[in-house]
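4.2 Preliminary Data

To establish feasibility before requesting continued support, the project team ran the inverse folding procedure on a target of 125 residues. The structure was first converted into the token representation described in Section 3, and no sequence information of any kind was made available to the design step. The complete token record follows.
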């Protein structure tokens, strides 16, 4: 059995996918790009600002499903430019000051809407 989660505090899906799906005590959050949920538009800004927006979007989805950042067990970060890795890491690390989740980070050619970053997340209770 699976449960689909949606919150207005995070961007609406821009394709045929759910914001998050929970199954067997695990929450799978679709890749989040730095869209401001109040406008539905990609935010302007550098990698730090865009990472901050992505993490806020992830936080809103976690909360809507009854999870928190402390429940996150795995993140996958996609960067349009690996030169932004250190700056992204600085912002990302604020959300996981201890017991950080497992993580992978990849440089990719292009992200949806021209975003600099996309992060997908898995959490468990």
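Position-by-position output of the design step:
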């Amino acid at each position: 059995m699976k449960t689909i989660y949606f919150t207005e505090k995070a961007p609406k899906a821009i394709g045929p996918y759910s914001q998050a799906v929970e199954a067997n005590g695990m929450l799978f959050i679709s890749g989040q790009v730095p869209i401001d949920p109040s406008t539905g538009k990609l935010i302007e800004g550098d990698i730090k600002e865009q990472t901050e927006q992505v993490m806020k979007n992830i936080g809103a989805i976690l909360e809507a499903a009854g999870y928190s950042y402390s429940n996150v067990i795995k993140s996958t970060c996609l960067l349009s430019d690996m030169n932004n890795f250190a700056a992204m890491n600085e912002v990302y690390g604020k959300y996981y000051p201890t017991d950080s989740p497992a993580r992978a980070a990849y440089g990719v050619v292009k992200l949806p809407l021209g975003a600099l970053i996309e992060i997908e997340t898995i959490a468990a209770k």
